Prior knowledge:
Blueprint: E1 7-12, H1 16-30, E2 35-40, H2 44-47, H3 64-71, E3 77-81, E4 93-97, E5 106-110, E6 124-126, H4 130-139, E7 144-146, H5 152-182, H6 192-195, H7 204-210, H8 213-219, E8 229-233, H9 234-239, E9 247-250, E10 265-270, H10 273-282, H11 285-301, E11 309-316, E12 319-327, E13 334-342, H12 346-372
Parallel strand pairs: 1-2, 1-3, 6-7, 6-8
Antiparallel strand pairs: 3-10, 4-10, 5-8, 5-9, 11-12, 12-13
Helix pairs in contact: 5-8, 11-12
Amino acid sequence: MTTRGETLRLATRGSDLALRQAATVRDSLSSRRLSVELVEVETTGDQIRDELIHRLGKTGAFVRSLDEKVLEGELDAAVHSMKDMPTERPERLVVAAVPERAAAEDVLVTPDGRSLDELPEGATVGTSSLRRKAQLLAERDDLTVEPLRGNVDTRIAKLLAPSLQQEHQERHEAEQEHKGDAGDGDDADPDADEEEEHPYDRTVEEWFDDLTEFERRAMERDPDVEYDAIVLAKAGLHRAGLTRYVSMSDLDPDRFVPAPGQGALAVTAVDGDLALDIKDRLDDPQTRVETTVERTILEELGGGCVAPIGVHAHLEGGVVHTRVRVLSQDGTEEVSVGRDIPAEYHIDAAQDLAAELAEQGADDLIAEAKRDSTGADDDAATAREEDEE
């Protein structure tokens, strides 16, 4: 067991969001008298930039590299977004702690505050999540859902780039026209310069100077796709500190059922005294029950990285309110259920619920998704949404 004075080496990915998440774990452990050092590890998923999430491999391209360091003894523990984690783990590795969960819901993110219902017909929405795509199409089959990868800041930048570029162009053209009008001809009204107001409150240069560094980088992008909106996890957007740049519209979690484990972090470690020590200091019992229900159902269904599956559980008193939605990839078919299961027997009850869903047709939808998904692995991992916060 780690003792006072020793330093726990905590593995994390090097993305801004991953570092922020790992820092919350470090700070929580530090407040409980455990010294922690964050160690950045480059993962397979970080090295593959253009391949869709659900084709990255069954063991979890953003998870595997960190856990290997822990299993080899190079590092003591690792921090993951729980929804990235495969349901199958190496034998010696355990989820030592699940800290208190943040918001589990998805949000529609736009530059101008429009809701899903307010998006124009045929609007382009960005996501690389099969679950989000299917749920969007089930709600509005007119939408064009295009792939969107990258860290949260990259995705927000891709969304903002066209509107920033357009505003820059409009301001520049208006300023040039204003300058031209002010100096036109001998017949111009001598009082016109005083009466005519500048079309904007600031010059183009002043407007640009007021942009943040993030907005300037976004404006320099040349996105392949112009998105009207994108869908992200609410927790990831808040953790990344990017909410001030966009407008968010909450998506009803009964219709847009979150991914299993969404909003939760997990700390993995080798089974033993250190894992128990981390659990004692950091584990949140409510979040542990909720995410165990969600991941048990996912594992029992076996949809893995190819089937759109949403599972959300909320513990209240002695009951776990559970919502599951399994869809076809195009969103035209689904099997869904809402059920209250007893917290005392939450694992067994979750297994029973998954079996019931399978009998109702979830197995058929998952099998069809596996047949239709070329090159995707068929294990029960959540790799389809890795880095999709």
